[in-house]
Input
Amino acid sequence: GAGVSQSPRYKVTKRGQDVALRCDPISGHVSLYWYRQALGQGPEFLTYFNYEAQQDKSGLPNDRFSAERPEGSISTLTIQRTEQRDSAMYRCASSPGEGLSVSYEQYFGPGTRLTVT
Amino acid sequence: SQKIEQNSEALNIQEGKTATLTCNYTNYSPAYLQWYRQDPGRGPVFLLLIRENEKEKRKERLKVTFDTTLKQSLFHITASQPADSATYLCALLTSGTYKYIFGTGTRLKVLA
Output
């Protein structure tokens, strides 16, 4: 079946522009995570959705970052007024399970490589 | 402060040997620990999950141990093959949160 998809795969933007990154999770997956991954590092948690509810946004670096998942499926991560330090690989992952303190496997998407010039 | 450590150096082993990767953590009380494989340019792929009350989990040639006293998980690949060459990541989930914390990963190279 189809895995997690993300678009665009590559995004080059000028400093100060807004960008929107899209994640299409595996159908039926309740949980959705956004991560940022620097080269040679593990994924860094940004935010978590349970259906359409954003349950944890503690990893969002500042208020220029926001995310939504209005219908409990596709999610968008938006970065306003981009800065060069925002350049990174942004990955989303979906998971079939839900609930606090319960762990299920995560299925990662291919990521969006964001470059801010 | 909270920290997760994986071998920062790449691990080179000969084909057929057992590869052992470590994941050490401090100032966490993880309820779950996951291991992932990541190939260059790809997203992480889930391998195994172990709960805090489990000592060991196996799947084919893979074995994970979880020692909450030592605050350590070991990940073993037996009869390693060149196709096992990749970066391996551990991830913790602490009770009462949704937030996974990933280690930096260990790069494994299996030599033919």
